[in-house]
Amino acid sequence: MSISREDVEYVAALARLELTEQETQEYTEQLNSILGYAAMLEKLDTSDVVPTAHAVPLHNVLREDQVKPSINHDKALRNAPDGEEGFFRVPKISLT
Amino acid sequence: MESVTIGKSVSELHELLLHKEISSTELTKAYIDRIKSVDPALQAYLTVLEEEALAQAADVDEKISQGQALKPLEGIPMALKDNMCTEGIRTSCASKMLENFYPPYNATVTERLRAAGTILLGKLNMDEFAMGSSTENSYFAKTRNPWNLECVPGGSSGGSAVAVAGDEAAFTLGSDTGGSIRQPAAFCGVVGMKPTYGAVSRLGLIAFASSLDQIGPFTKTVRDNALVMNAIAGHDPLDSTSVPIEAPDYTKFLVNDIKGLKIGIPREYFGAGIDPEVAKGIQAGIQTLIDLGAEVAECSLPHTEYAIPAYYLIATAEASSNLARYDGVRYGYRADADDVLGMFKKTRAEGFGQEVKRRIMLGTYALSSGYYDAYYLKAQKVRTLIKQDFDKAFEKFDVLLSPTAPTSAFKFGEKSADPLAMYLSDITTVPINLAGIPAISIPAGFVNGLPIGMQLMGKAFGEGSLYRVAYTFEQNTNYHTLKPNLSREVLTGGSR
Predict the structure, then answer these.
(1) Which terms does the record give in the GO molecular function aspect (chain A) (predicted)?
(2) Contact residues on chain B for A56, CB-CB shorter than 8 A
(3) What's the rounded Cα separation, in Å, for the pair B467 and B81?
(4) Residues B26-49: pLDDT tens digits?
(5) Mean of pLDDT over chain A
(6) Which of B98, B242, B434, B446 ranks highest by number of CB atoms within 10 Å?
(7) Is the residue at A61 inside a domain?
(8) Is residue B142 within 8 Å of residue B134, measured between CB atoms?
(9) Is the ipTM of this complex over 0.90?
(10) Which CATH number is B59's domain given?
């Protein structure tokens, strides 16, 4: 299973990453090398193996709902690159 | 006053504070002076909190003068890896993305260490978003190995290891997703513990791979390590993956006796890729443990070779999802663009470094439609097999033992050009994270003047057995007492 330049461009779009020409080339090579190595996993028959998502599985961790104060607007917005009157401001959202 | 701190363990410093031979203010000043003199060369710190630390120390001294009881870590200066949130104190993850991020809350470990009365000296360098094995991926600084300034300190918690090895803090915390505590501890000749997954709260630890990340202590001695674990371990209702069991008093496992303890030596951890000199050093350590009465036998963890691909698929898949939050909207770096989608793409292109982007790409690919079963699901199934290997071994053995890393510290640039070569050097550490079990690295000798580490692996929540073996080994060897030469000549001559 080899990865084409188009695959890399497609994945970059999914990951919301703008890549330079050089990065596109490098990542195509490097992902091929890394996934080529990962192909060794195919050698293992795992048809009867249950996947592990967490090593120490905990299920349905529940608690009573409690009303507590949350952080205020000023604090929440302190790290925002662009904020105003209690809102996060973003550039225009265009439908393309 | 500098001489007072050099080489002293947390428990020794506690005695000095207790008997009023030194004040916390004097101690904190000594560490600040030490940082000023060695850190321009070592570059372990990204942020030093001189004023804040001295104010905290003054509070502790006030308590002491009132005759209040002194907790084991009270008044002790320490530092945190820069991926643990500190309220109002920059937490950068060594990334341009978070260059100006000031968390609105504290990580649970930050809170617990504050409650324990420790003094926060500052925040420590790391590989960007904890992705790396050499700390070379930091956006800000190149941390140097105190034992040889031309060598990397390991990673990703390179700053945490160097701060302890270079006596720039009495102890530090790091995080370990695939070896990021143990490997730098080995490279720098200090003690580093990766606890069982779920033993220490991850609340406020900036996420890399959530099913693998775990916080743990770097210390000079095994006793110190247990003392720090006492302060940070235990259930946290705010982290739903924190395991709801009561943490033990870890110091009660510090006995100088391993008679009859069963130690397994997994042969796969001594195979191809392991420097023969490192293997020899660890063999000598094994002999020491046999002489002390341990029952040692070889064993097998047959799926070890599959751990690297399984780890790098799972860790990058989780990372690609976790790092989706960096979109330039609520916090972090933002690049200008005409529309919001362009802003996301440019922000992430400019805010993340090469290794982070590479891993996001790999993880996004592994999770993408059509490849999910072949890569991500397959890796999760292999994770089960790796975990079963350990379960089986622990039916026969109390503890497993291996080298912490295949080599001693390598030179800057030696592996940074080839990502796969860098990934392969994690073979002895990543299986432990996949299995969720605890492992500790302790100083076990030197190869070419650089420290090597012995890794002890235990059952889930078996940190006690690890501390028992580690303590016994430490009490019968002198590696932990040896110090790197950080004379002025070395610091000015060896750098740059």
Answers:
(1) asparaginyl-tRNA synthase (glutamine-hydrolyzing) activity; ATP binding; glutaminyl-tRNA synthase (glutamine-hydrolyzing) activity; transferase activity
(2) 196-198, 241, 243, 436, 460
(3) 23
(4) 999 999 999 999 999 999 999 999
(5) 91
(6) B434
(7) no
(8) no
(9) yes
(10) 3.90.1300.10
CB contact under 8 Å between A18 and B377, yes or no, is no
In a domain, residue A79? The reply is no
- CATH classification of the domain holding A2: 1.10.20.60
Share of chain B above pLDDT 90, in %: 93
- Looking at residue B19, its pLDDT comes to 93
Is B305 in contact with A40 (Cβ distance < 8 A)? yes
Which residues are CB-contacts of B203 (< 8 A; sequence separation ≥ 6)?
Answer: B107, B108, B236, B238, B239, B242
Q: List, as ranges, residues 43-72 from A with C-beta within 8 Å of B.
A: 44, 46, 49-56, 58, 61, 63, 71
Structural domains in chain A (count): 1
| Contact residues on chain A for B416, CB-CB shorter than 8 A | none
Contact assignment for A79 to B332 by CB distance below 8 Å = yes
The residue in chain B having the minimum alpha-carbon distance to the alpha carbon of residue A7 is B365
CA dist list (Å): B354 to B229, B350, B376: 34, 10, 22
Full residue range of the structural domain in which residue A21 is found: 1-45
Number of domain units in chain B: 1
Strand partners, B296: B263
Taking only the tens place, the pLDDT of each residue in B445-483 is 999 999 999 999 999 999 999 999 999 999 999 999 999
> Which residues sit opposite B443 in a β-bridge?
B453
CA-CA distance, B245 to B234, in Å (whole number)?
7
Q: Which of B147-151, B334-338, B489-493 has the lowest mean pLDDT?
A: B489-493
Is B134's pLDDT higher than 50? yes
Contact state of A38 with B357 under an 8 Å Cβ cutoff: no
Task: Show which of residues 5-44 on chain A sit within 8 Å of chain B, judged by CB atoms.
Answer: 7-8, 10-12, 14-20, 23, 27, 30-31, 33-35, 37-38, 40-42, 44
Nearest to B104 among A12, A76, A94 (CB): A76
Question: Strand B191-194 vs strand B439-447: parallel, antiparallel, or unpaired?
Answer: antiparallel
Residue of chain B with shortest Cα separation from A22: B354
Residue A17 is assigned to a structural domain of this protein: yes
Please check whether residue A88 lies inside any domain of the structure. no
